[in-house]
Design a protein that fits this description.
By secondary structure, the chain is mostly helical. The protein has one domain (2-122). It has helices at 2-32, 36-59, 66-94, 99-122. Helix 1 (2-32) runs antiparallel to helix 2 (36-59), helix 1 (2-32) runs antiparallel to helix 4 (99-122) and helix 2 packs antiparallel against helix 3. The chain starts with a helix and ends in a 10-residue tail after the last helix.
């Protein structure tokens, strides 16, 4: 049951990060005239910082070494960001898919893979080590 509530918290914080990502993406996409990838990349980076901070403190309640945890998350995003940026750019700018649909697909992939990575790789051995 505890794992279920951990997932619910992660989902809620991810939703707040999603609002930040979609808001930033929409502003950049509509106001700058830039192609898909810089708008997506900046918005994604903002949501990553937000999500990492909240999930470390409230979802996984971890006292894990912050620089080590951040390096692990950086390793995850070193793969995730280029793949989704290139794929998203191809879908949006080459195949002319709707930019918001592509961003939504990327956000769904991010939600699923990031939860699994953070739960089992970043915080696996240090969950609930932070005292209230």
């Amino acid at each position: 049951m505890k794992e279920f509530w951990r997932f619910v918290k992660f989902a809620l914080f991810s939703a707040s990060a999603g609002i930040i990502e979609l808001g930033a993406f929409a502003l950049l996409n509509e106001l700058t005239g830039w192609s898909y990838w810089p708008c997506y990349l900046i918005a994604l980076l903002l949501s990553i910082l937000w999500n990492f901070t909240l999930n470390r403190k409230f979802t996984f309640r971890s006292v894990a070494n912050v620089p080590v945890a951040m390096l692990k998350v950086l390793g995850f995003y070193a793969v995730f960001v280029p793949v989704t940026t290139l794929l998203g750019d191809f879908l949006a700018d080459t195949l002319h898919w709707n930019e918001y649909l592509v961003t939504g697909i990327n956000m769904g992939l991010n939600f699923i893979t990031e939860y699994l990575f953070q739960r089992y790789v970043v915080y696996g051995n240090s969950i609930d080590t932070r005292k209230s």
